[in-house]
Design brief:
Number of helices: 13
Order of helices and strands: EHEHEHEEHHHHHHEEHEEEEEEEHHH
Largest sheet: 5 strands, antiparallel
Structural class: alpha+beta
Shape: globular
CATH architecture of the largest domain: 2-Layer Sandwich
CATH topology of the largest domain: Uridine Diphospho-n-acetylenolpyruvylglucosamine Reductase, domain 3
Radius of gyration: 19 Å
Number of domains: 3
Oligomer: single chain
Number of strands: 14
């Protein structure tokens, strides 16, 4: 298999190399996922546009004055995991990354590539959905904001155009919200999950003001669970409520069976894990 590899020195040059009409032209960042696709023959590119030389410009991790975070798309997962601003403002991201693949992969893989890949088994999409994050997609004609929950449209499919790159990810201020990510694997802790559940709760005096619930791996793409969220809004924190929310979540999804578990098994995982994640976010043990 042969293909061209170009390594532009600027974002503008990288965008110029992309072709909106040719799916055989693809950007490559860390390459941890794309190289596996090349080796398996799943993807046969005509040209790869390497983003390595854009790292310095697009890899910053910074806190905003309002209390949020901005993560550069070329930031490596290991650097995000260790960033003080991430650990202080969104510790759930750092905790999730501890079991996201292994440290060798995290030293190379980038956040933008992780999201653009569109793999439903990734840990970060449900976490970022629960945090209300958005990505900035930049093309030759300008930039646009896409909520992470709207980014992945199907199995290995995203809302990105062939001529667009993710340049940064913005996470709004979390205030007093408490977020938790629970991952179920059938092998080692850092293996691909059979299910990933992220929840974020805003509550005071035991009353839930707002809830965000997102899952990954059990379905064909990471997604929010709005029916379960509405059940929780305005309710009082309670173990029975969380078990009910887990049951509603299990009925809300369309699970996809794979080598990590059948669809009925994953539905049961959702039932139990959503309840546990909500309980943990509320400071309870279920």
């Amino acid at each position: 298999m042969s293909f061209d590899l170009v390594e532009p020195g600027s974002l503008e040059e990288a965008l110029a190399w992309l072709d909106p009409e040719d799916p055989g032209v693809r950007a490559i960042a860390g390459g941890t996922a794309l190289m596996l696709m090349l080796k398996s023959g799943f993807f046969r590119p005509r040209r790869l546009v390497g983003l390595r030389r854009l790292g310095d410009r697009l890899s910053a991790v910074r806190a905003t004055a309002e209390g949020g975070l901005v993560l550069g798309a070329m930031a490596r997962l290991r650097d995000i995991e260790r960033a003080p601003a991430v650990r202080q403002r969104t510790p759930v991201i750092a905790e999730a990354l501890l079991t996201h693949s292994n440290i060798r992969v995290r030293n190379v893989a980038t956040l933008g590539g992780n999201l653009a890949h569109g793999d439903p088994h990734m840990d970060l999409p449900p976490v970022l959905i629960a945090l209300g994050a958005t990505v900035t997609a930049t093309g030759a004609c300008g930039s646009r904001e896409i909520a992470v929950e709207d980014l992945v449209t199907g199995y290995f499919e995203t809302a990105l155009g062939n001529d667009e790159l993710i340049t940064e990810i913005a996470i709004p201020p979390q205030g007093a919200r408490r977020a938790v990510y629970l991952k179920c694997t059938t092998r080692a802790a850092d293996d691909w999950p059979a299910l990933g559940v992220a929840v974020s709760l805003d509550f005071a005096d035991s009353v839930i003001r707002d809830a965000r619930i997102a899952i990954g791996a059990a379905t064909d793409r990471a997604a929010r669970l709005p029916v379960s969220e509405r059940l929780l809004a305005g309710a009082t924190v309670d173990a029975a409520l969380f078990r009910e929310a887990g049951a509603v979540a299990a009925g809300e999804i369309e699970p996809v069976g794979d080598d990590r578990g059948s669809a009925p098994y994953k539905r049961q995982l959702v039932r139990v894990t959503v309840a546990r994640a909500l309980s943990r976010a509320a400071g309870m043990v279920l």
